[in-house]
Design goal:
It is globular, with a radius of gyration of 23 Å. It has 511 residues and is α/β, with parallel strands linked by helices. The strands form four sheets. A nine-stranded mixed sheet has the order 1-2-3-7-4-8-9-14-15, with helices on both faces. Strands 5-6 form a two-stranded antiparallel sheet. Strands 10-11 form a two-stranded antiparallel ribbon. The two termini are 39 Å apart. A hairpin with a 7-residue loop joins strand 10 and strand 11. It has 14 helices and 15 strands. Helix 4 crosses helix 12.
């Protein structure tokens, strides 16, 4: 690596124009094989040296940007996927833990986890500052941008299609992870996978494909572990999150109580009287319907008449529009503490896309000028393309399981996400699983995450649920980042203790 390039000031400074070292040169044929340079073609690897001020002192690290070329069904280069890795300098430990992190969407880049939560630099207003909560002192970090996000692009017209499905996306991510580990000589290193929202779906879907990976931890943040319509169970699981939202805006009988208490009371009602009422359907007696509607009104702050008119089936979108309708406002889906004037509906887009907590406006794409500038100026990535933080254009083209499997590909059938989690914990005796939810999240309600953990039948000693006073992005503030750091530390300690135990099992078997 280049030396003497990092600034001694807190945060360090990127080496400008640092030559790609021998490792990157060795990777280049692998990453760029079969692809010709083009405006939207593969981007050359880039390495830069930096320093970070931490509570324990200065931490020197290398930032490595690379792209892997993915091939389509015809065997030809079809798309690229980017990895942005941060590797502690001065260590040749092939067994140093590696954390792979990605967000969801589908159509989201890894930018929230990268510059809001875990990276060595984090967003602060319009700029970036050192991130004191980064786990880089304990493990190397690799942020992955799926096809169509970040700087990752299809290489040919239609080249993204085979990667814009549950199964195709899982295969691509597994290929990138195993390819990165092999190329960097880290095939035996303990691996922690962090996935947020649809990233939880992706993580669970790809578990059977991580053959031979030393999987040590899964951190699934607001994980979407249910695919397809869930019927009445979706309404039951959303009701506690709606009660928390109502209380946050001074509505309902539980206003003023801490969110944990609100959620617990509402969850008890949702799993009991509310679930039984929904199950009864048209057989529900009018008097019982009226009683349940009144109880719901006390919890979620909507008029009993409106609840009865909906046959007790109040979904999140109805609730978001109705709670503050008198003020002309809608409530955030990703963070129910947020309220904003009702936006104009954009033709062809679901109402969830107008979530004030999402910030899309009338566009289908969010471009992160700050992250693109950071990658170019500080990390030395040579490209003029936009860094796509979020794109609904990919989301709207996604092939969900109910649409897949028509071509005879068994792998494109609906995956058993909870079964994959359970099997992975059997295959990897050291694997620890942490599921995280936010009280103010109505996109993936906390009750849904709790139910997923219960129904996965995971070993209780190695699986846990963490509930935080947060929205969908549980790491969006300093307490959230500290909680993330604590979770990572706990997984790393558990893995170190397992490796040190004389009862340590043999390497994981492949299914």
């Amino acid at each position: 690596m280049a030396t003497g390039c990092a600034s001694g000031a807190p945060g360090g400074g990127a080496c400008r124009g640092v030559p790609v070292n021998a490792v990157a040169l060795a990777l280049a044929p692998l990453l760029l094989a079969g692809a010709q340079p083009a405006p939207d073609g593969p981007i050359a690897p880039a390495i830069s040296h930096h320093a970070l001020a931490t509570p324990a002192g200065r931490l020197d690290y290398d930032a490595v940007f690379e792209q892997q070329v993915l091939r389509g069904p015809d065997g030809q280069p079809a798309a690229t996927m980017s990895t942005i890795a941060y590797l502690r300098s001065g260590t040749a430990d092939a067994m140093r833990p590696v954390i792979f992190a990605f967000n969801g969407g589908p159509g989201a880049s890894s930018s929230p986890l990268h510059i809001d939560a875990m990276g060595p630099r984090r967003r602060d207003g319009a700029g970036l500052v050192d991130n004191a909560e980064t786990p880089l002192d304990r493990a190397d970090l690799v942020f992955v941008d799926p096809v169509g996000t970040g700087f990752s692009r299809p290489l040919t017209p239609g080249g993204g299609a085979s990667f814009w499905s549950v199964a195709g996306d899982a295969r691509a991510m597994a290929q990138v992870i195993t390819g990165w580990l092999a190329a960097h000589g880290r095939a035996g290193a303990p691996v922690i996978v962090v996935g947020e929202s649809y990233g939880g779906t992706r993580a669970a879907a790809m578990l059977p494909l991580l053959k031979g990976v030393n999987l040590a931890g899964l951190v699934l943040l607001s994980p979407a572990l249910a695919i397809g319509p869930q019927g009445d169970s979706e309404l039951v699981e959303a009701l506690p999150a709606m009660a928390v939202a109502a209380a946050a805006h001074g509505k309902g009988a539980l206003a003023g109580l801490p969110p944990a208490q609100v959620e617990a009371r509402a969850a008890a009602f949702a799993a009991g009287p509310y679930a039984r009422a929904l199950l009864a359907g048209s057989a529900l007696a009018p008097a019982e319907e009226a009683r349940v509607a009144m109880q719901m009104a006390r919890l979620i702050g909507l008029p009993p008449a409106a609840i009865r008119a909906a046959r007790l089936r109040v979904d999140v979108e109805m609730f978001r529009a109705a709670l503050l309708a008198g003020k002309g406002q809608v409530v955030g889906r990703l963070d129910s503490r947020i309220a904003a004037p009702r936006p104009a509906q954009v033709a062809g887009r679901p109402s969830a896309a107008s979530d004030p907590a999402l910030g899309l406006g009338a566009s289908n794409v969010i471009v992160s000028a700050a992250l693109g500038d950071y990658l170019r100026r500080e990390l030395g990535v040579h490209t003029t393309r936009d860094y796509v933080s979020l794109t609904l254009d990919v989301n709207f083209q996604w092939r969900w399981p109910r649409m897949e499997g028509t071509d005879g590909d068994e792998a494109d059938r609906r995956p058993d996400l909870l079964g994959n989690l359970a099997q992975a914990m059997t295959d990897h005796p050291a694997l620890q699983v942490t599921l995280v939810g936010g009280y103010y999240d109505m996109a993936v309600p906390l009750m849904a995450t709790r139910d997923a953990l219960r129904h996965a039948w995971l070993p209780r000693s190695r699986a846990r649920l963490v509930a935080l006073p947060a929205g969908h992005s549980v790491f969006a503030d300093a307490p959230g980042r500290r909680a993330m750091r604590a979770m990572i530390d706990q997984l790393l300690r558990a893995n170190a203790n397992h490796q040190a135990s004389p009862r340590t099992s043999q390497p994981p078997t492949s299914r």
